[in-house]
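User: Is it possible to get a 3D structure for a protein together with its bound compound? The compound here is pyridoxal-5'-phosphate. I've pasted both below.
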Amino acid sequence: MTRKYNFSAGPAMLPAEVLERAQQEMSDWHGTGMSVMEMSHRGKDYMSIAEQAEADLREVMAIPDNYKVLFLQGGASSQFAMVPMNLLCSQNKLHADYLNTGAWSKKAIAEAGKYGDINVVASSEDTNFTTIPDFDTWNLNANAAYMHYTPNETIGGVEFHSIPDVGDVPLVADMSSTILSRPIDVSKFGIIYAGAQKNIGPAGLTLVIIRDDLIGEVMTDTPAMFDYAIHAKSDSMYNTPPTYAWYLSGLVFQWIKEKGGLAAMAEISQRKSQKLYDAIDGSDFYNSPVPTEFRSWMNVPFTLANADLDASFLEQAAQHNLVTLKGHRSVGGMRASIYNAMPEEGVDALVSFMQEFEKSNA
Ligand SMILES: Cc1ncc(COP(=O)(O)O)c(C=O)c1O
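Assistant: Yes, that's possible. Here is the predicted structure of the complex:
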C-alpha cells in the first residue's frame, strides 16, 4: 500500500506511526479483549486512556492548573455558539469584541450575533482577507466580555505569529488549524478551542481549554450540552464522549512528545512552509496571495499564473501521490495544508513536482 501525501485542510493526515499503533490495538486493547470503541466510557480501562490523553496534552501545551481541558463534540462550529452562550452573561457583560480576518472569523461573528452585541474591532475584508489589520487600528472595548479571533485562517492562509495583547479582556481563540503547531503561552488566553480533524486527531472531537473563572454563569435556557460548567464538572463525561477520537488524539499527543514536543513541531512547520513559499516566490509561474509577514505555516494557498492549467496541475500532482491540493472555492488555485503529520518528504515531493510542472508548461 502506498500512503498518499494528502494536503487536505481537514480531515487531514494523521501520523503513520499513530495509525499503525491504533491498528495493532484495534480489536484487543492491552489484553482487554475489546476495542477502545467497545469500552464503557466509565470503565477503568477507558478512564485510564482518557486521563493519560489529558495529562499528555497538558504536558505538551504546558497548560496551567487553573485551566480545564474539555473533550467535547460538535466541532469548532458549535463553539461559535457555545462561547457567547457561556460568556455573554458573565459579570453583566452583554457585548463582545471580534476580529474579522476571514471566512472562519465571519462565521464566528454571525453566530455570536444571535446572542448579544458584537463589535467587529477591525476587518481585513478590504484586502480579500490576505492580511491582518494593524493592531493600532483595532477598536477594542475595554468592557467587552471577551475578544475573539482566529489565529490561523484555514482558507485564506493567514496566520498570527504573535499573540495580541488585549489587556484584561479574556482572549478567545479558534485554534482549529494551528493548535499544536508551536508552543504558545496558554495563560494569555481565556478560551482556546479547536476541532480535532487537522492537528489533533479524527473528526468528532472538539477540544476546549478554558480558564476556571470563565466557567459558571450561562444564558437562561442554554441546553446542557452547551454549558461549559456541566462538562467541566463531569470531566467531559456528562454524556458519552467521542471515545475513539479521544483515544486516537491521545496517541497523537504521545507522538508529539516523542518527536520533541511543540518546539520541534514549530521548527519543522516553519521549515516545511518556508520550502513551499521559497518555491512559490522563486518563480513567476506560481503566486502567493498573502504578504510574507502574514503567511501561515499550516495552510499555503497559491495560484498558477495561468488558471487554465489548474486542472492538469491537480491531475498530474495526483499521479505523483500528491492529493487534495485544490484551493478553496473562495480563493481559487491551490492550497497545500501541511499540518504536523505531513512528512517533510511530502513537501519536498510537492516542491519537486511544482518545478517539474513549471518546466513543462511555462
Ligand atoms: C479555523 C476554523 N474554524 C472552524 C472550523 C469549523 O470546524 P468544524 O468543522 O469542526 O466545525 C474550521 C474547519 O475547517 C476551521 O478551519
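The domain at 16-258 is CATH 3.40.640.10 (Aspartate Aminotransferase; domain 2). Residues 7 and 337 are 5 Å apart (CA to CA).
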